[in-house]
Amino acid sequence: MTLPTSVSPKEESKSGAMSSRSKRRRIRSASRADAIAPYAYIAPFFIIFGIFGLFPTIFTFYVALFDWNPIGGQTFIGFDNFTQLYGDPRFWNALRNTFSMWILSTVPQLTFALFLAQLLNNIRLKFANFFRMSMLIPYITSVVATTIVFASLFGREYGLINFFLGIFGVGNIDFTANTLASHILVATMVMWRWFGYNTLIYLAALQAIPKDVYEAAAIDGAGGFKQFFFVTIPSLRPVIIFTVIVSTIGGLQIFTEPLLLSSPGLTGGAGRQFQTLTLFLYEQGFGNFEFGYGSAIGVVLFLLIVVFSIINFFLSRRIASDD
Amino acid sequence: MRSRSILKAVIAGGAAMALLAGCSSGGSTENGGDSPSSGKQVTLNVWTFGGMGLDELFTKYQSENPNITLKLTNAGGSDEQAQALTTALAGGKGPDVAAIEVGYMSQFKAQPQNFVDLRTLGSDDIQDTFLDWRWEQGVAADGAVVGIPTDVGGLAMAYRTDLFEVAGLPTDREEVSALWPTWEDFITVGNQYTEATGKGMVDNATNSVYNAVVRQGDQMYYGDGPDDLVYDTNPQVREAFDLALGSLELSSNTGSFSEEWNAGMNNGDFAVLAAPAWMMTYISQQAPDTNGKWDIAAVPGGVGNWGGSQLTIPANSEHPQEAFDFMSWLMAPEQQLEVFQAHGNFPSTPELYETPDIQEFSSEFFNSAPVGPIFAKSTEGIKPIYEGPQQRIIDTAIQNVIGQVENGEESAEGAWERAMADVETAIQ
Question: Which of A206, A233, B270, B415 has the fewest CB atoms inside 10 Å of its own CB, making it the most exposed?
Answer without folding.
Answer: A233
